[in-house]
Amino acid sequence: MLDEQAIRTFLHGTTRYFEVAAQQPASVGSPYLMAPGELELHEYTGVIAVSGRRDGIVYFTAPRGMLTVLLMRMNESDVSHENICDIVGEVANTIAGNARRDFGNQFMISVPTVLAGAGKKPQLPAGSHPIVIPINWRSHSARLVVALR
Amino acid sequence: MSGIARQECVFAQPFRLLIVDDSNVMRRRIERSQNLPQLEVVGTARDGREAIERFVETDPDVVTMDITMPHMNGIECVEEMVRMKPGVLILIVSALADKATAVEAMEKGANGFLNKPFSDRQLNEALEELLGGA
Fold first, then answer.
1. CA angle, corner A140, sides to A137 and A146, nearest 5?
2. What architecture (CATH level 2) is domain A4-148?
3. Residue of A10, A74, A88 best to disrupt the B interface, most CBs of B under 10 A
4. Nearest CA to A147 among A38, A62, A67, A44?
5. What is the C-alpha separation between A51 and A106, in angstroms, rounded?
6. Strand pairing partners for A146?
7. B70–A98: do the CB atoms touch at under 8 Å?
8. Does the domain made of B15-132 have the CATH classification 3.40.50.620?
9. I want to staple A101 with a disulfide (CB 3.0 to 4.6 A). Which of A38, A69, B26, B97 is the partner?
């Protein structure tokens, strides 16, 4: 299970992403343990596989509306499905990659896999105790989920 | 040739920039946000293999390089590009925030490191610093 310091690493990474990339801070809620069977996803999910000293996944799931505004805040006028998929993967990649500042280079991350639409769910590693970090940005809600062993 | 004439000569031929990132949004963002008059974008690439192909085709002077990419990662690309053109200036633009990765990239021949996420100002400052050494 993630300790307090590890959770703080992901909280900081999430806060920093919105402050710097979107130049508009997000409100990050209190992290909580995902309840069994609770695997609610928004329309788009960027999944990063983690290997090395830790293994598991980190995913960022968000509604299309939020990702559209995020692209626009980055002066991106092309808000096509392809770019929405791209940015949700990039957010997950950036937050997971930034975690290496604390975890070191043995915290190895994959390129992002993107899930779009209903029906597809990320595979949570057995024995992990996923932590959910709620994110509120403008009028939108999203989640970062960290499921590591 | 006088100092002034030499300076005019430099600006007459801008530095050629290749942008490498597996994210289309990031490639477009770097292209749009970089505003140094002495830089001209000559190509983009979305993975390591394509980066090497574009590098050969476009002969850039400056490269912005992601690390986590399919096919061939950014550090392998740096090594290959420096082997092909030892004077090339490479700015790593990556989410990987650990010191060991930055040190490894520099040892392979990268000249600067910019962590994602970044602001437009941070990008331009990093590019300016890179060119300051040229």
1. 75
2. 3-Layer(aba) Sandwich (3.40)
3. A74
4. A38
5. 8
6. A58, A131
7. no
8. no
9. B97
- The tokens of B46 are what? 């979305």
Cβ-Cβ contacts under 8 Å, A101 against chain B: 97-98
Question: Which amino acid, residue A34?
Answer: M
Q: What is the three-state SS of A50-71? A: EEECCCEEEEEEECHHHHHHHH
- Interface confidence (ipTM) of the complex: 0.92
Domain boundaries, chain B: 15-132
* Separation of alpha carbons A135 and A142, rounded Å: 5
Q: Look at the block and give the residue holding tokens 């939108």.
A: A140
Q: Please report residues of A whose CB lies closer than 8 A to that of B24.
A: 82-83, 86
For the question of whether the overall pTM of this predicted structure is more than 0.90, the answer is yes
Q: Write the single-letter amino acid at A140.
A: H
Q: Average pLDDT, stretch B58-63?
A: 98
